[in-house]
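Q: Could you fold this chain for me?
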Amino acid sequence: METCKILLAEDDVNLGKVLTTYLEAKGFSVMHANNGEVAYEMFCANTFGICLVDVMMPIQDGFTLAESIRKVDSKIPIIFLTAKSMQEDILQGLSIGDDYVTKPFSMEVLLARIQSVLRRVSNVDGDPNKPVQVGALSFDPNKQTLSKNGEVVEKLTTREVELLSMLIEKKNEIMERGYALKKIWGDDSFYNARSMDVYIAKLRHKFNEHDPSIKIINVHSIGFKLVF
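A: Sure. Below is the predicted structure, expressed as structure tokens.
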């Protein structure tokens, strides 16, 4: 199996060294940059399987770096590492990346998050399903896109793809919150539940913009239902 290469953007030199040593001991290859500008140059010059990005970095902050990375590769998984735990920071991080780990964190928890994200990406990439018609939109889970009249109108994140795939599978039925959380995030903690709500809101916004007849309905205390 090919070694997964990680881009680690972390301005704390000591933490960067500790993370690099730990992750390489777990079988990953790690390239460490101590600011966003250097990290972006590394990303453009190499092929990575996942990015770990500190939010508060000099020269270029993590959110700006992630947005730049997304313009180059919309599918690359990004996990934010940060001491910032305000709700608006978490929501901004989840709107750009695939996960958000607040400092201090244990190495084991970070490893579990990395493995979880990589599993989701692998499952999506290996999905043999053809594009699915959702109202006036065509959903391609492999390309991670929504198209209308043959033209791509939205690029989706890995989690949006997984949520939408589950909603489609349960079309006109209830997708239970707990089931979705455990299958996609690994557990149904309050933090992960908030994360799922962010992605549901993002999907709703995309549907409202391109086909308002597609609805994701809240089923109180139970879950969601896709109707179109």
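A (continued): Residues 190-210 form the longest helix (21 residues).
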